[in-house]
Automatic annotation (TrEMBL):
Metabolic or biological pathway: Pyrimidine metabolism; UMP biosynthesis via salvage pathway; UMP from uracil: step 1/1
GO MF entries: GTP binding; uracil phosphoribosyltransferase activity
Assigned keywords, A-Z: Allosteric enzyme, Glycosyltransferase, GTP-binding, Nucleotide-binding, Transferase
Name used for this protein in its record: uracil phosphoribosyltransferase
InterPro entries to which the protein is assigned, alphabetical: PRTase-like (IPR029057), PRTase_dom (IPR000836), UPRT (IPR005765), UPRTase/APRTase (IPR050054)
Sequence ranges assigned to domain Phosphoribosyltransferase in this UniProt record: 7-209
GO biological process: uracil salvage
Domain of life per record: Eukaryota
NCBIfam families to which the protein is assigned, alphabetical: PRK00129.1, upp
GO cellular component: cytoplasm
Enzyme Commission code(s) on record: 2.4.2.9
Family: Belongs to the UPRTase family.
Length: 212
């Protein structure tokens, strides 16, 4: 699938291997997600359009300045998406941070929206959704639908550490124009909808709450 970009960066593979380990402590989980998020964010922003501005002066001469041509919004899917927010904000300090609260109901595995802090009218031209895990894809599909209904017409990008093959297929089936930047794609979901081997529940591992 051309819309799915699986990172080939050796640092992503190395850090993800440590992140998967069940013995990795929450502090290091937070650090690793921040670092992986920044590496994936670099890849996701490689084709952002730029425009020329005014003539500026370096220590040795004049040059034509450039800046981003679009207003970027990072959509943080609570709560695990918070681990990516600071990492990508460091790359694009001018980006707006937007928040969506969506959780997966444990029995039905269906997404439930509980928080939406989007302005009444879109204040960005392009959004990059920050969600470290894509399991069944239900939460991602719900987030994309919310953003489309909000008024985002441009291509929506996703930055995620680990996804299941089924989850990605579900997203593309429902939203074929979405671009996904991912650290690794695992083949299997268990009966509870967790990615195997995956890395467990990202939010629980981040904040050291009971999981699985």
């Amino acid at each position: 699938m051309s819309s799915v970009k699986i990172s080939k960066h050796p640092l992503v593979a190395h850090k993800l291997s440590i992140l998967r380990n069940k013995n990795t402590k929450p502090k290091q989980v937070r650090e690793l997600l921040n670092e992986i998020g920044q590496l994936l964010g670099y890849e996701a922003t490689a084709d952002l359009p730029i425009k020329e501005t005014n003539i500026l002066t370096s220590p040795l001469g004049e040059y034509t300045g450039v800046e981003l041509a679009t207003k970027i919004g990072f959509v943080v899917v609570l709560r695990s998406g918070l681990s990516f927010a600071e990492a990508l904000h460091e790359i694009i300090p001018s980006a707006r941070i937007l928040h969506l609260g969506i959780f997966r109901e444990k029995v039905s595995l269906q997404p439930v929206e509980y928080y939406n802090k989007l302005p009444s009218v879109p204040n960005v031209d392009q959004v990059i959704v920050l969600e470290p895990m894509i399991a069944t894809g239900g939460t991602a599909i719900a987030a994309i639908s919310i953003l489309r209904d909000w008024g985002i017409k441009s291509k929506i990008k996703f930055v995620t550490v680990c996804a299941s093959k089924q989850g990605i297929e579900n997203i593309i089936e429902n939203h074929h124009d979405v671009e996904i930047f991912v650290g690794a794609v695992d083949e299997v979901l268990d009966e509870r909808g967790y990615i195997v081997p995956g890395l467990g529940d990202a939010g629980d591992r981040l904040y050291d709450t009971p999981y699985l």
